[in-house]
Amino acid sequence: MKVLVPIKRVVDYNVKVRVSADGSGVDTQGVKMSMNPFDEIAVEEGIRLRESGAAKEVVVVTIGAQAAQDVLRTAMAMGADRAILVKTDETLEPRAVANALKAIIERENPGIVSMGKQAIDDDMNATGQILAAKLGWPQATFASKVTINGERAEVTREIDGGSATYGVPLPAIITADLRLNEPRYASLPNIMKARKKPLETLELSSLNVDTASRLTTISVAEPAERQAGVMLNSVAELVEKLKTEAKVI
Amino acid sequence: MTEIERDEMEFDVVVVGGGPAGLSAAIRLKQISPDLNVCLIEKGSEIGAHIVSGAVIEPRALEELLPDWRQTDAPLRTEVSEEQVLFLTEKRAFPIPGLNLVMPHMTNHGNFVVSLGEVCRWLGEQAEALGVEIYPGFSGAQLHIEDGRVTGIVTGDMGIERDGTHGPNFTPGMILRARQTILTEGARGSLSAHAMKHFNLRDGVEPQTYGLGIKEVWEIPEENHRPGFVQHSFGWPLDDSTYGGAWLYHFGKNLVSYGFVTGLDYKNPHLSPFEEMQRTKNHPAFRPHFEGGKRIIYGARALSEGGVQSLPRLTFPGGVLAGDSAGFVNVPKIKGTHTAMKSGMLAAEAVADALNKNEPQALGLEERLRNSWLWTELHGVRNIRPAFAKWGAKLGALYAGIDSMLLRGRAPWTLHHPHADHETLRPAAKTAPIAYPKPDHKVTFDRVSSVFLSGTNHEENQPIHLKLRDPAKWLPVNHTLYDSPESRYCPAGVYEQEQKSATEWDLRINAQNCVHCKTCDIKDPTQNIEWCTPEGSGGPNYPVGM
Amino acid sequence: MTALVLLEIENGAVRQASRSAVAAAGAFGTVDVLVLGHGAEAAARLPGVTRVLHAEALSDALAEPAAALLADIASGYTHIIGAATATGKNILPRLAGLLDVQPIPDVIAINDADTFIRPIYAGNALATVRSSDSIKVITIRGANFDPVASEGGAATVEAVAFNAASQVNAAELLSVNLSTSERPELESARVVISGGKGLKDAENFKLLEPIADKLGAAIGASRAAVDSGFAPNEMQVGQTGKIVAPELYIAVGLSGAIQHLAGMKDSRVIVAINLDPEAPIFRVADYGLVADLFTVLPELESAL
Question: Superkingdom of this entry's organism (chain C) (predicted)?
Answer without folding.
Answer: Bacteria
